[in-house]
From TrEMBL:
EC number of this enzyme: 1.5.1.5, 3.5.4.9
Protein name: Bifunctional protein FolD
Superkingdom of the organism of origin: Bacteria
Residues involved in NADP(+) binding: G164, R165, S166
Species name: Collinsella tanakaei YIT 12063
Protein backbone atom coordinates (compact mmCIF):
# COMPACT_ATOMS: atom_id res chain seq x y z
CA UNK A 1 0.00 0.00 0.00
CA UNK A 2 1.62 3.17 -1.22
CA UNK A 3 1.30 6.72 0.05
CA UNK A 4 -0.74 8.59 -2.54
CA UNK A 5 1.01 11.83 -3.47
CA UNK A 6 -1.71 14.48 -3.56
CA UNK A 7 -0.70 16.69 -6.48
CA UNK A 8 -4.10 18.33 -6.61
CA UNK A 9 -3.98 19.46 -2.98
CA UNK A 10 -0.36 20.59 -3.17
CA UNK A 11 -1.10 22.51 -6.38
CA UNK A 12 -3.88 24.42 -4.61
CA UNK A 13 -1.39 25.40 -1.87
CA UNK A 14 1.08 26.54 -4.53
CA UNK A 15 -1.54 28.68 -6.26
CA UNK A 16 -2.34 30.33 -2.92
CA UNK A 17 1.39 31.08 -2.51
CA UNK A 18 1.55 32.45 -6.05
CA UNK A 19 -1.49 34.64 -5.35
CA UNK A 20 0.29 36.14 -2.30
CA UNK A 21 3.45 36.74 -4.36
CA UNK A 22 1.40 38.38 -7.11
CA UNK A 23 -0.29 40.70 -4.60
CA UNK A 24 3.13 41.73 -3.22
CA UNK A 25 4.47 42.35 -6.73
CA UNK A 26 1.46 44.49 -7.56
CA UNK A 27 2.00 46.58 -4.41
CA UNK A 28 5.55 47.13 -5.67
CA UNK A 29 4.15 48.31 -9.02
CA UNK A 30 4.90 45.10 -10.97
CA UNK A 31 1.93 43.55 -12.80
CA UNK A 32 2.44 39.97 -13.97
CA UNK A 33 0.66 39.10 -17.23
CA UNK A 34 0.58 35.80 -19.11
CA UNK A 35 0.05 35.56 -22.88
CA UNK A 36 -1.30 32.19 -24.03
CA UNK A 37 -1.04 31.49 -27.75
CA UNK A 38 -3.23 28.72 -29.16
CA UNK A 39 -2.93 27.76 -32.85
CA UNK A 40 -5.72 25.69 -34.37
CA UNK A 41 -8.80 24.14 -32.81
CA UNK A 42 -7.58 20.97 -31.11
CA UNK A 43 -10.13 20.21 -28.37
CA UNK A 44 -7.68 18.95 -25.74
CA UNK A 45 -5.42 21.98 -26.24
CA UNK A 46 -8.37 24.38 -25.95
CA UNK A 47 -9.38 22.71 -22.66
CA UNK A 48 -5.83 22.99 -21.25
CA UNK A 49 -5.65 26.64 -22.26
CA UNK A 50 -8.98 27.39 -20.54
CA UNK A 51 -7.73 25.82 -17.30
CA UNK A 52 -4.52 27.88 -17.46
CA UNK A 53 -6.55 31.07 -17.89
CA UNK A 54 -8.67 30.05 -14.89
CA UNK A 55 -5.52 29.48 -12.81
CA UNK A 56 -4.35 33.00 -13.73
CA UNK A 57 -7.60 34.48 -12.55
CA UNK A 58 -7.35 32.64 -9.23
CA UNK A 59 -3.81 33.96 -8.72
CA UNK A 60 -4.59 37.56 -9.75
CA UNK A 61 -2.46 37.29 -12.89
CA UNK A 62 -3.69 39.18 -15.96
CA UNK A 63 -4.07 36.83 -18.91
CA UNK A 64 -4.10 37.56 -22.62
CA UNK A 65 -5.55 34.95 -24.91
CA UNK A 66 -4.37 34.73 -28.55
CA UNK A 67 -6.24 32.32 -30.82
CA UNK A 68 -4.86 31.78 -34.32
CA UNK A 69 -6.36 29.67 -37.10
CA UNK A 70 -4.89 26.22 -37.83
CA UNK A 71 -3.41 27.53 -41.09
CA UNK A 72 -1.59 30.48 -39.48
CA UNK A 73 1.85 31.00 -41.02
CA UNK A 74 5.21 30.68 -39.31
CA UNK A 75 5.90 34.38 -39.92
CA UNK A 76 2.57 35.41 -38.43
CA UNK A 77 3.32 33.52 -35.20
CA UNK A 78 6.93 34.75 -35.03
CA UNK A 79 5.67 38.32 -35.43
CA UNK A 80 3.13 37.82 -32.64
CA UNK A 81 5.84 36.41 -30.34
CA UNK A 82 8.12 39.38 -31.10
CA UNK A 83 5.30 41.80 -30.31
CA UNK A 84 4.67 39.98 -27.02
CA UNK A 85 8.41 40.11 -26.20
CA UNK A 86 8.27 43.91 -26.56
CA UNK A 87 4.95 44.37 -24.70
CA UNK A 88 5.52 45.46 -21.07
CA UNK A 89 2.05 44.18 -20.04
CA UNK A 90 3.20 40.66 -20.92
CA UNK A 91 5.65 39.06 -18.46
CA UNK A 92 5.16 35.45 -19.56
CA UNK A 93 4.61 33.85 -22.97
CA UNK A 94 3.22 30.34 -23.48
CA UNK A 95 2.73 28.87 -26.96
CA UNK A 96 0.52 25.82 -26.52
CA UNK A 97 2.02 22.59 -27.91
CA UNK A 98 1.69 20.65 -30.11
CA UNK A 99 1.61 23.10 -33.03
CA UNK A 100 0.14 22.13 -36.42
CA UNK A 101 2.75 20.13 -38.39
CA UNK A 102 3.47 22.83 -41.00
CA UNK A 103 4.99 25.02 -38.28
CA UNK A 104 8.54 24.92 -36.93
CA UNK A 105 8.04 24.74 -33.16
CA UNK A 106 11.77 24.98 -32.40
CA UNK A 107 12.07 28.32 -34.19
CA UNK A 108 8.99 29.67 -32.40
CA UNK A 109 10.26 28.58 -28.97
CA UNK A 110 13.62 30.19 -29.71
CA UNK A 111 11.90 33.47 -30.64
CA UNK A 112 10.45 33.81 -27.12
CA UNK A 113 12.49 36.11 -24.88
CA UNK A 114 14.22 33.89 -22.27
CA UNK A 115 13.05 36.41 -19.63
CA UNK A 116 9.43 35.56 -20.54
CA UNK A 117 9.91 31.82 -21.14
CA UNK A 118 7.51 30.58 -18.45
CA UNK A 119 7.37 27.08 -20.02
CA UNK A 120 11.14 26.78 -19.61
CA UNK A 121 11.38 25.37 -23.14
CA UNK A 122 13.89 27.91 -24.55
CA UNK A 123 17.45 26.62 -25.17
CA UNK A 124 18.69 29.34 -22.79
CA UNK A 125 16.46 28.03 -19.99
CA UNK A 126 17.53 24.42 -20.59
CA UNK A 127 21.18 25.46 -20.86
CA UNK A 128 20.99 27.35 -17.57
CA UNK A 129 19.48 24.29 -15.89
CA UNK A 130 22.28 22.06 -17.18
CA UNK A 131 24.89 24.62 -16.06
CA UNK A 132 23.29 24.85 -12.60
CA UNK A 133 22.37 28.53 -13.04
CA UNK A 134 19.13 30.13 -11.83
CA UNK A 135 16.44 30.48 -14.48
CA UNK A 136 12.98 29.43 -15.56
CA UNK A 137 12.50 25.66 -15.26
CA UNK A 138 10.11 23.46 -17.27
CA UNK A 139 6.88 23.19 -15.28
CA UNK A 140 6.37 19.42 -15.22
CA UNK A 141 9.75 18.35 -13.83
CA UNK A 142 9.88 21.42 -11.54
CA UNK A 143 6.45 20.48 -10.15
CA UNK A 144 7.66 16.91 -9.61
CA UNK A 145 10.62 18.21 -7.57
CA UNK A 146 8.18 20.13 -5.35
CA UNK A 147 6.14 16.94 -4.77
CA UNK A 148 9.26 14.88 -3.94
CA UNK A 149 10.35 17.52 -1.41
CA UNK A 150 6.90 17.92 0.11
CA UNK A 151 6.80 14.17 0.79
CA UNK A 152 10.41 14.16 2.08
CA UNK A 153 11.60 11.70 -0.55
CA UNK A 154 15.39 11.38 -0.19
CA UNK A 155 17.28 11.99 -3.43
CA UNK A 156 20.99 12.19 -2.61
CA UNK A 157 22.71 8.93 -3.54
CA UNK A 158 19.44 7.32 -4.69
CA UNK A 159 18.89 5.67 -8.05
CA UNK A 160 16.50 7.71 -10.20
CA UNK A 161 15.23 6.19 -13.44
CA UNK A 162 13.43 8.35 -15.97
CA UNK A 163 11.50 6.68 -18.76
CA UNK A 164 11.33 9.20 -21.61
CA UNK A 165 13.87 11.65 -23.03
CA UNK A 166 11.82 14.61 -24.26
CA UNK A 167 13.16 18.14 -23.96
CA UNK A 168 10.18 19.18 -21.84
CA UNK A 169 10.12 16.34 -19.30
CA UNK A 170 12.75 13.58 -19.48
CA UNK A 171 15.91 15.59 -20.10
CA UNK A 172 15.22 18.45 -17.66
CA UNK A 173 13.97 15.93 -15.05
CA UNK A 174 17.28 14.09 -15.28
CA UNK A 175 19.22 17.29 -14.70
CA UNK A 176 17.06 18.42 -11.76
CA UNK A 177 17.53 15.07 -10.03
CA UNK A 178 21.25 15.10 -10.85
CA UNK A 179 21.51 18.57 -9.30
CA UNK A 180 20.14 16.98 -6.11
CA UNK A 181 22.78 14.24 -6.15
CA UNK A 182 20.66 11.34 -7.38
CA UNK A 183 22.21 8.79 -9.74
CA UNK A 184 20.38 9.09 -13.05
CA UNK A 185 19.40 6.61 -15.74
CA UNK A 186 17.39 7.81 -18.73
CA UNK A 187 15.51 5.04 -20.55
CA UNK A 188 13.74 5.44 -23.90
CA UNK A 189 12.16 3.56 -26.79
CA UNK A 190 15.44 1.86 -27.74
CA UNK A 191 16.31 0.79 -24.18
CA UNK A 192 16.75 -2.94 -23.60
CA UNK A 193 15.58 -4.68 -20.41
CA UNK A 194 13.39 -1.74 -19.48
CA UNK A 195 11.61 -3.66 -16.70
CA UNK A 196 14.95 -4.54 -15.11
CA UNK A 197 16.17 -0.94 -15.23
CA UNK A 198 12.89 0.26 -13.69
CA UNK A 199 13.35 -2.25 -10.88
CA UNK A 200 16.69 -0.62 -10.03
CA UNK A 201 14.94 2.69 -9.28
CA UNK A 202 14.41 4.22 -5.87
CA UNK A 203 12.63 7.01 -7.74
CA UNK A 204 10.91 6.12 -11.01
CA UNK A 205 9.58 8.89 -13.26
CA UNK A 206 7.57 7.65 -16.24
CA UNK A 207 6.96 10.03 -19.15
CA UNK A 208 6.74 7.90 -22.27
CA UNK A 209 3.08 8.23 -23.32
CA UNK A 210 2.24 4.51 -23.28
CA UNK A 211 -0.89 3.76 -21.27
CA UNK A 212 -0.24 1.60 -18.17
CA UNK A 213 3.19 0.43 -19.40
CA UNK A 214 4.76 0.06 -15.95
CA UNK A 215 3.54 -3.00 -14.00
CA UNK A 216 3.87 -3.94 -10.33
CA UNK A 217 6.75 -6.34 -10.95
CA UNK A 218 8.74 -3.51 -12.64
CA UNK A 219 8.87 -1.63 -9.34
CA UNK A 220 11.18 -2.15 -6.38
CA UNK A 221 9.18 -2.49 -3.14
CA UNK A 222 9.00 0.91 -1.43
CA UNK A 223 10.08 2.92 -4.49
CA UNK A 224 8.58 6.32 -5.32
CA UNK A 225 6.68 6.24 -8.62
CA UNK A 226 5.86 9.46 -10.50
CA UNK A 227 3.43 9.10 -13.41
CA UNK A 228 3.62 11.87 -16.02
CA UNK A 229 1.32 10.07 -18.49
CA UNK A 230 -1.89 11.60 -19.83
CA UNK A 231 -3.16 8.64 -21.83
CA UNK A 232 -6.49 7.08 -22.76
CA UNK A 233 -7.24 3.43 -22.01
CA UNK A 234 -9.28 1.05 -24.24
CA UNK A 235 -12.49 2.60 -22.89
CA UNK A 236 -11.29 6.15 -23.61
CA UNK A 237 -10.77 6.96 -19.94
CA UNK A 238 -7.86 9.11 -18.75
CA UNK A 239 -5.01 7.03 -17.34
CA UNK A 240 -1.25 7.26 -16.86
CA UNK A 241 1.88 5.46 -18.07
CA UNK A 242 1.79 3.41 -14.84
CA UNK A 243 -0.61 0.55 -14.12
CA UNK A 244 -1.76 2.25 -10.92
CA UNK A 245 -3.76 -0.60 -9.33
CA UNK A 246 -0.92 -3.04 -9.92
CA UNK A 247 1.88 -0.73 -8.75
CA UNK A 248 -0.04 0.67 -5.77
CA UNK A 249 0.60 -2.52 -3.76
CA UNK A 250 4.37 -2.39 -4.36
CA UNK A 251 5.41 1.27 -4.37
CA UNK A 252 6.19 3.32 -1.27
CA UNK A 253 4.60 6.42 -2.80
CA UNK A 254 2.78 7.02 -6.08
CA UNK A 255 1.15 9.89 -7.97
CA UNK A 256 -2.38 9.32 -9.29
CA UNK A 257 -3.69 10.27 -12.74
CA UNK A 258 -5.63 12.52 -12.65
CA UNK A 259 -4.72 14.52 -9.55
CA UNK A 260 -0.94 14.08 -9.55
CA UNK A 261 1.57 15.61 -11.93
CA UNK A 262 -0.97 17.48 -14.10
CA UNK A 263 -2.22 19.96 -11.49
CA UNK A 264 1.38 20.52 -10.31
CA UNK A 265 2.44 21.38 -13.87
CA UNK A 266 -0.22 24.08 -13.98
CA UNK A 267 0.63 25.40 -10.51
CA UNK A 268 4.31 25.58 -11.46
CA UNK A 269 3.34 27.71 -14.45
CA UNK A 270 1.81 30.27 -12.06
CA UNK A 271 4.99 30.18 -10.00
CA UNK A 272 7.08 30.70 -13.15
CA UNK A 273 4.96 33.70 -14.14
CA UNK A 274 5.82 35.23 -10.75
CA UNK A 275 9.53 34.39 -11.19
CA UNK A 276 9.58 35.84 -14.71
CA UNK A 277 7.89 39.08 -13.59
CA UNK A 278 10.53 39.44 -10.86
CA UNK A 279 13.36 38.74 -13.31
CA UNK A 280 12.06 41.47 -15.62
CA UNK A 281 11.59 43.95 -12.79
CA UNK A 282 15.23 43.37 -11.77
CA UNK A 283 16.64 43.46 -15.32
N1 LIG B 1 3.38 25.14 -24.15
C1 LIG B 1 2.85 24.13 -23.48
N2 LIG B 1 3.01 24.05 -22.13
C2 LIG B 1 2.47 23.02 -21.43
O1 LIG B 1 2.64 22.94 -20.19
C3 LIG B 1 1.70 22.04 -22.13
C4 LIG B 1 1.55 22.18 -23.51
N3 LIG B 1 2.14 23.22 -24.16
N4 LIG B 1 0.82 21.29 -24.22
C5 LIG B 1 0.10 20.21 -23.57
C6 LIG B 1 0.77 19.78 -22.31
C7 LIG B 1 -0.13 18.99 -21.39
N5 LIG B 1 -0.19 19.75 -20.15
C8 LIG B 1 -1.03 19.42 -19.09
C9 LIG B 1 -1.06 20.15 -17.92
C10 LIG B 1 -1.94 19.84 -16.90
C11 LIG B 1 -2.81 18.78 -17.01
C12 LIG B 1 -3.78 18.49 -15.93
O2 LIG B 1 -4.02 19.31 -15.07
N6 LIG B 1 -4.40 17.30 -15.92
C13 LIG B 1 -5.42 16.91 -14.96
C14 LIG B 1 -6.55 16.17 -15.63
C15 LIG B 1 -7.14 16.88 -16.80
C16 LIG B 1 -8.20 16.04 -17.51
O3 LIG B 1 -9.12 15.57 -16.83
O4 LIG B 1 -8.06 15.86 -18.73
C17 LIG B 1 -4.84 15.97 -13.92
O5 LIG B 1 -3.85 15.28 -14.24
O6 LIG B 1 -5.38 15.87 -12.84
C18 LIG B 1 -2.77 18.04 -18.16
C19 LIG B 1 -1.89 18.34 -19.18
C20 LIG B 1 0.50 20.90 -20.30
N7 LIG B 1 1.09 20.97 -21.50
Amino acid sequence: MATVIDGKGLAAKMRAEAAKDVAALKRAGVNPGLAVVLVGDDQASATYVRSKLRDCEECGIASFDYKLPADASQDEILQLVRNLNDDPKITGILVQMPLPSHLDAEEIIEAISPLKDVDGFHPTSLGRLVRGLPGLRPCTPAGIMVMLDEYNIELAGKNAVIVGRSSIVGKPMAHMLLERDATISVAHSRTRNLDEICRSADILVVACGIARLVKGDWVRPGATVIDVGMDRDEDGRLCGDVDYDDVFNVAGAITPVPGGVGPMTRAMLMSNVVTAARMQAEA
